Amino acid sequence: MSKSNITSSECKICGDSASFSHYGVTACQSCKMFFKRNAENRRETLKCHFDDQCEVNINNRHVCAACRLEKCFKVGMCIEMIRCPQSRNKRKNTISSALVP
């Protein structure tokens, strides 16, 4: 499950406020969605133009996607915790069929 504990602290990637653990790390919604969109397909294609030394924080988290994604992995975000679309659809269908009288 992507949400586990309510933590009410700061995102381990950018420092923004975060209330939940996503993919194994306390993360804000922005970093959660960034990781979900980029983790599986873009790790090899993203390139840093500044020698992989970019600081990732709330003010500049959009500047370098390569360094942001690398920081996601360094702090412990886990690809395996991202549910595949088939899994989401299966859950949706199960919930829908349970609601039908």
UniProtKB/TrEMBL annotation:
Entry protein name: Nuclear receptor domain-containing protein
GO BP annotation list: cell differentiation; negative regulation of transcription by RNA polymerase II; positive regulation of transcription by RNA polymerase II
PANTHER family hit by this protein: BILE ACID RECEPTOR-RELATED, NUCLEAR HORMONE RECEPTOR
InterPro entries, A to Z: Nuclear_hormone_rcpt_NR1, Znf_hrmn_rcpt, Znf_NHR/GATA
GO MF entry, a single one: zinc ion binding
Pfam families: zf-C4 (PF00105)
SMART domains: ZnF_C4
Residue span(s) of domain Nuclear receptor: 8-84
Record key words, sorted: DNA-binding, Metal-binding, Nucleus, Receptor, Transcription, Transcription regulation, Zinc, Zinc-finger
SUPFAM superfamilies: Glucocorticoid receptor-like (DNA-binding domain)
Gene3D superfamilies membership: Erythroid Transcription Factor GATA-1, subunit A (3.30.50.10)
